[in-house]
């Protein structure tokens, strides 16, 4: 009955979302008509702030017909679709993707390239499509003037006179001006003429990012690619087929061939823990967990249900990895629900005891204790106790130790990234800034990265050095928990250092176990929709992986471009891998059928993503988490700064 009620509620929520999507598409069509009517009839948009979702049509007021003059006629010819056909920049390097449609071309747009010493105004053609905004300079030799930004990557658009300021989720801010406004000294601060003001508002309307996931370009992109590949057998490598839970758990030794759904043998040692797959059918155990999970064979369905009820969000402790030699296991969960009365759960205690007993006994014949790694700070658990939650009481569990890692919450991480974004802006610091390192330290970004790395190393050390099983959790088990368990496996298991293995790791620990991509990244949402839920959790994980590739440059098959590809995919709205908040939602929305996987282009053409110095090794890779070893990821945080590029001065000399 509970499942039926839950599914009915989800169906109702989905129907509401689909209705909203239909309304959005109607407004997109209506916006297109209004845009063309404005070009022909002289309508202007309201002076209302221009960031936010397309929830309703902006108010339109009629402008009195003015005598035709040279300026108005020129503006109309430049901005109208028909007037552009013969004047488009033919050196457009971006092209069009399958399913991508051009909405508008605009001539004589100025891109203000911000630099530390001075700014450069670059004129060119702005193109808006159903997927992205691109800008191509008239002077093709000016390498830093062009850009492309997916609509889904745009966060907020604001206006400063005749300037458009486009703040993006990838840390860059794009500044655009109309009709040479910026090339005239302080020209964009003057009151705009009616045509320029109209174009700014209308173009802004076209650049607003989709505020519904179903309206993202990923769906049109996949549909058109399938249409083009119809009868040709589909893609050579389909990223959606890369991860198989059964195959991965067989690789880890939990399941054996015909015993795919139970590893218990008739002649097995009864003292040894055996394993089976738990089917989370209709997501009855947990709506945010995957459909298949590994649990001890001795646990009954009812005991597992009781354990799930004892855990926040019903995210019970389940196994994700096993050490190939000492057989200890790595498990993950959410925090316990003790209630205000401090209740206990016998099934939860039995489950954790089974995880402890999976470890081999030491030379003294003693089983190592279970280590419960709580990613939070101790003070954070005190606040949760007031809500009836918190951390395990080691006295309630047999031979278990609790350790706190002290990783900050999502709000502190968001504040840290905001501070870092302000610091890495091209005009925020120059080469002579003596306070740069102090300002970088004050962002606390590198301190957070070091804390995450050292915590993951601690998990790996307990598993490898102590031969003890580990349970990792934070509050709900979908932010700091995947950071630690995924990094610990990267430290210990060489398979995950390959391109395919890393993709499997991300699919397993981040996608299937319900990291809230939609809430944390905000793709398909308006900037004002739950802003406190935003946090760079996945970006921090990728940063930590990059730190490891820097410390062990030959141990990883993939290179920096691969990590940047994954990072860009988080916010581009081009692939379906990181859409929605859980596996359940992606299944319900048929993401596997309707979108392309982020891994597909990598598998089809792995060359650009391979590390040419890769040498496979089975060694454990313990990262060093100190300021001598952990540095700012330049290719991520400074890639939009033209002064960081080697041919910067060549372009500067040409533009003088």
From TrEMBL:
<feature type="compositionally biased region" description="Basic and acidic residues">
    <location>
        <begin position="54"/>
        <end position="67"/>
    </location>
</feature>
<feature type="binding site">
    <location>
        <begin position="409"/>
        <end position="410"/>
    </location>
    <ligand>
        <name>substrate</name>
    </ligand>
</feature>
<dbReference type="InterPro" id="IPR011993">
    <property type="entry name" value="PH-like_dom_sf"/>
</dbReference>
<feature type="region of interest" description="Disordered">
    <location>
        <begin position="42"/>
        <end position="67"/>
    </location>
</feature>
<feature type="binding site">
    <location>
        <begin position="474"/>
        <end position="480"/>
    </location>
    <ligand>
        <name>substrate</name>
    </ligand>
</feature>
<protein>
    <recommendedName>
        <fullName>Phosphatidylinositol-3-phosphatase</fullName>
    </recommendedName>
</protein>
<dbReference type="Pfam" id="PF06602">
    <property type="entry name" value="Myotub-related"/>
</dbReference>
<dbReference type="InterPro" id="IPR003595">
    <property type="entry name" value="Tyr_Pase_cat"/>
</dbReference>
<feature type="binding site">
    <location>
        <begin position="384"/>
        <end position="387"/>
    </location>
    <ligand>
        <name>substrate</name>
    </ligand>
</feature>
<keyword id="KW-0963">Cytoplasm</keyword>
<dbReference type="InterPro" id="IPR029021">
    <property type="entry name" value="Prot-tyrosine_phosphatase-like"/>
</dbReference>
<dbReference type="InterPro" id="IPR016130">
    <property type="entry name" value="Tyr_Pase_AS"/>
</dbReference>
<dbReference type="InterPro" id="IPR010569">
    <property type="entry name" value="Myotubularin-like_Pase_dom"/>
</dbReference>
<feature type="domain" description="Myotubularin phosphatase">
    <location>
        <begin position="239"/>
        <end position="637"/>
    </location>
</feature>
<comment type="similarity">
    <text>Belongs to the protein-tyrosine phosphatase family. Non-receptor class myotubularin subfamily.</text>
</comment>
<dbReference type="InterPro" id="IPR000387">
    <property type="entry name" value="Tyr_Pase_dom"/>
</dbReference>
<feature type="domain" description="Tyrosine specific protein phosphatases">
    <location>
        <begin position="450"/>
        <end position="487"/>
    </location>
</feature>
<dbReference type="GO" id="GO:0012505">
    <property type="term" value="C:endomembrane system"/>
</dbReference>
<dbReference type="GO" id="GO:0005737">
    <property type="term" value="C:cytoplasm"/>
</dbReference>
<feature type="active site" description="Phosphocysteine intermediate">
    <location>
        <position position="474"/>
    </location>
</feature>
<dbReference type="InterPro" id="IPR030564">
    <property type="entry name" value="Myotubularin"/>
</dbReference>
């Amino acid at each position: 009955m509970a499942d039926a009620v839950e599914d009915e509620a989800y169906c109702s929520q989905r129907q509401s979302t689909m209705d909203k999507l239909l309304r959005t598409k109607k407004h997109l069509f209506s916006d297109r008509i209004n845009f063309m009517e404005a070009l022909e009839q002289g309508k202007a948009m309201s002076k209302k702030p221009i960031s936010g979702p397309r929830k309703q049509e902006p108010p339109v007021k009629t402008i009195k017909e003015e005598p035709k003059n040279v300026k108005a006629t020129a503006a109309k010819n430049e901005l109208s679709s028909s007037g552009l056909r013969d004047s488009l920049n033919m050196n457009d390097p971006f092209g069009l993707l399958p399913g991508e449609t051009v909405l508008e071309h605009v001539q004589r747009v100025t891109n203000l390239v911000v630099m530390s010493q001075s700014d450069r105004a670059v004129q060119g053609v702005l193109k808006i499509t159903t997927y992205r905004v691109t800008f191509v300079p008239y002077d093709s030799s000016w390498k830093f003037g062009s850009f492309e930004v997916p609509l889904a990557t745009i966060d907020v658009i604001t206006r400063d006179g005749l300037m458009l300021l486009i703040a993006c989720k990838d840390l860059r801010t794009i500044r655009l001006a109309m009709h040479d406004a910026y090339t005239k000294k302080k020209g964009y601060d003057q009151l705009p003429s009616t045509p320029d003001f109209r174009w700014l508002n209308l173009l802004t309307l076209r650049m607003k990012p989709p505020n519904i996931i179903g309206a993202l370009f990923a769906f049109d992109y996949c549909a058109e690619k399938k249409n083009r590949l119809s009868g040709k057998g589909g893609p050579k490598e389909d990223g959606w087929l890369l991860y198989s839970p059964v195959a991965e758990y067989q690789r880890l030794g939990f399941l054996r061939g015909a015993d795919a759904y139970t590893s218990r043998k008739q002649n097995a040692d009864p003292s040894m823990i055996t394993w089976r797959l738990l089917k989370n059918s209709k997501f009855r155990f947990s709506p945010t967990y995957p459909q298949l999970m590994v649990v001890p064979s001795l646990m009954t369905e009812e005991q597992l249900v009781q354990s799930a009820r004892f855990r926040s969000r019903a995210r019970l402790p389940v196994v994700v990895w096993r050490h190939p030699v000492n057989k200890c296991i790595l498990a993950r969960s959410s925090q316990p629900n003790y209630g205000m009365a401090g209740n206990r759960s016998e099934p939860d205690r039995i489950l954790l005891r089974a995880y402890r007993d999976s470890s081999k006994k030491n030379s003294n014949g003693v089983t190592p204790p279970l280590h419960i790694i709580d990613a939070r700070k101790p003070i954070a658990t005190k606040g949760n106790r007031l809500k009836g939650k918190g951390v395990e009481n080691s006295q309630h569990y047999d031979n278990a130790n609790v350790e706190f890692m002290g990783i900050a919450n999502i709000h502190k991480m968001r504040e840290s990234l905001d501070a870092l974004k302000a610091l890495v802006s091209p005009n925020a610091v120059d080469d002579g800034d003596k306070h740069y390192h102090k300002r970088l330290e004050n962002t606390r970004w590198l301190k957070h990265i070091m804390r995450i790395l050292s915590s993951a190393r601690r998990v790996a050390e307990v598993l490898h050095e102590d031969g003890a099983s580990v349970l990792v959790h934070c509050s709900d088990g979908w932010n700091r928990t995947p950071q630690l368990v995924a990094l610990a496996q990267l430290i210990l298991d060489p398979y995950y250092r390959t391109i395919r293995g890393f993709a499997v790791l991300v699919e397993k620990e981040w996608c299937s176990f319900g990291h809230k991509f939609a809430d944390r990244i905000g793709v398909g949402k308006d900037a004002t929709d739950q802003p406190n839920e935003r946090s760079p959790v996945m970006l921090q994980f990728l940063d930590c992986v990059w730190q490891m590739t820097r410390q062990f440059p030959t141990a990883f098959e993939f290179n920096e471009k691969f990590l940047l590809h994954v990072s860009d995919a988080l916010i581009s709205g081009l692939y379906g891998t990181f859409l929605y908040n859980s596996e359940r939602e992606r299944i319900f929305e048929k993401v596997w059928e309707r979108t392309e996987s982020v891994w597909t282009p990598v598998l089809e053409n792995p060359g650009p993503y391979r590390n040419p110095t890769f040498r496979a090794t089975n060694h454990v890779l313990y990262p060093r988490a100190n300021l001598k070893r952990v540095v700012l990821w330049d290719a991520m945080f400074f890639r939009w700064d033209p002064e960081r590029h080697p041919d910067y001065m060549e372009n500067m000399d040409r533009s003088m």
